[in-house]
Amino acid sequence: MAIVYDEKSQVFFLHTQNTTYQIKVDRYGYLLHLYYGKKMDVSMEYMLTYFDRGFSGNPYDAGQERGYSLDVLPQEFPVLGTGDYRNTALKVKEMNGCLGCDLRYDSHHIREGKYSIPGLPAVYAQEAQTLEILLKEERLGLEVALLYGVVEECDMITRSVRITNVSGEKVYLEKVSSVCLDFLFGPLDFMTFYGRHAMERNMQRTQVSHGRQSIGSTRGSSSHQYNPFVILAGADTTEDTGECYGVSYVYSGSFSAEVEQDQFQQIRFVMGLSEEQFSYPLHKGEVFYAPEAVLSYSGEGLSVLSHHFHQCIREHVCRGEYKNQARPILVNSWEACYFDFDGEAILRLAQQAAELGIEMVVMDDGWFGHRDDDNSSLGDWEVNERKLGCALSELSAKIHEMGLRFGIWFEPEMVSEDSNLYREHPQWAMKIPGKRPVRARNQLVLDYANPEVVQYIYEKIASVLHQGSIDYVKWDMNRSLADIYSGSTEEQGRVLYDYMLGVYSLLERLTAEFPHILWEGCSGGGGRFDMGMLYYTPQIWCSDNTDAVDRVRIQYGTSFGYPLSAMGAHVSAVPNHQTGRVTDMSTRGVVAMTGAFGYELDLGKLSEEDRQQVKNQVALYHRTAPLLQNGKYYRLSNPFGEEFGAWMVVDSQKESALLSVVSLETHGNLPVIYVKLRGLDAAGEYEAQDTGQVYSGAALMSCGMPIALRGGDYQAYQILFSRIS
Questions:
Q1: What are the C-alpha distances in Å from 23 to residues 132, 143, 458, 601?
Q2: Active site residue 544
Q3: Tens digit of pLDDT for each residue in 670-723?
Q4: Residue 549 — φ and ψ, nearest 5°?
Q5: Bridge partners of 217?
Q6: pLDDT tens digit string along 648-666?
Q7: In 3-state terms, what secondary structure has residue 13?
Q8: Residue of 155, 182, 471, 476 with catalytic role
Q9: Is 388 helix (H, G, I), strand (E, B) or coil?
């Protein structure tokens, strides 16, 4: 059994293949967190200690027992109002303005299968178990159900919260977190992934110290600035050794992740909805669902932790026909021609793609309304047949006749002031009454907290998708939210959360109605790269920055929590349009192949040498696509601290491996570097396909593969190994 309850000790054991999570109901009905780590069949209750701590209060029930204080005990779901002065997971405000809650254990239920969450994305699995622990607050009339899903095969435990108001008086949820992890001791490092537009998910590692360290987003999206995936790692944890815990938030809106070391060296981590502009009203009989958090533990270093998340996302988050398929190689029109195109230009790009073996052409921004720049027409999802010179169905048919697939771009959550939609329904844009709105990219945000708006956009997009045989949709979002207001409610503290429910409801309807379409998420590249979006779109445009050298670093940081199959990655023109850097076609191909592979340039301007390179890259990608899609990924260097980026992918049977190395700097009289491979069979022998030379698996992992660096900027090296014995 994955979930076991010991009635005598009142301890819950949640077992995965290699880990155990323990919870205890104590003598006063409080829920204590005992343990999370390597698989353990014995209760860890003996770790709890009780002392009279100065200025740490005691629950009234404890009577004269001054040694009992929730201010120092490890808790499963700490709430404001129990004498715990550390960070809490739940804050409830009464109509009189008071904040104070006292949740106690009532009952529990263990059932087969994994719970789901109405209106929200969540991990799914048939071979799983669910634990539901019901807590009650009698005075306020609240029932709080803590939901735990156990997916044994990939060492995953999921958490969510359901809050029900069973009283007669409205309350406000001022803070709702989905997960709390209490550690009795450290030291621990806090690993986060920060960035900005066009330079996302740079890895940062800092020691947890006294006081609170926090990351998060208040932008209405998970953001370019901080990703909703974090790692807590032992100070000596490396890629190969040591303990680490990963937490990923299955949500695409504003969030908060906080860690603090308290006065007694204990460490608490809390992750959930951002408190900013959140004050959710809960009337009698109403239910609130918190987004899901996904947890995993590794005692064998960061690589194994990443493998857990990669497997979980590929097999238990992504859905649809493309879940386990190698994605088609595409060329996107954006950097090829931006807004300056017509139907003939798209057909020329398609013809050039067909000649090179590329499988799909994507018509990006500019095909609708009267949009010839980014100042108009968002919301007017009607095909500009004058610009295309034909109907969308005709253009699509001509591309399909060439043997290619066809995709288009949408930005469904936005509206231009210069649009028919805005002129007809200005109240549908998110604006505070009487205040001039904040613009970004000269556009406003549609009020997706209003179901009427969501229904309208659904009808418009569905109409377009029904017009032509569309194989791919890029779903973009190119600004952060501001001026949070919805005319559909008097309670503005619920709008940000309801906005995301609106986005998810539209995605659910469209992906169900058009199951053959490959959906790619995007928010100016990687501004909404999270497990919530991956539930609907099995890949996400990793960054608007297509520069190969920057992408080595962006994809490195992304790989800690997300699989290669989720990362949209394209070969673009040089000098690069974002950085001006020049890298050769080989380097650009090696980097882009570490993801959902494609091109983003004018194919007609390629030299004959580069055209041959493209053909070679297409052939290699087809040969290695199953490996890249489903293999185990290993980071072999840190491109933020070393002069080269190196990584490899190994298949599950250890029969083949693809090694990639990119030189990030060049100097005179360069030394040889020795890249230690990982994940191979130490007893096996591997042949390098380019040279035919045979190597010992043990030698490659112990001593490394010599890479003789060539002169010239940003040279790339790629070796495909096949096991021969």
A1: 12, 19, 44, 54
A2: yes
A3: 889 999 999 999 999 999 999 999 999 999 999 999 999 888 899 999 999 999
A4: -70, -45
A5: 255
A6: 999 999 999 999 999 999 8
A7: strand
A8: 476
A9: helix
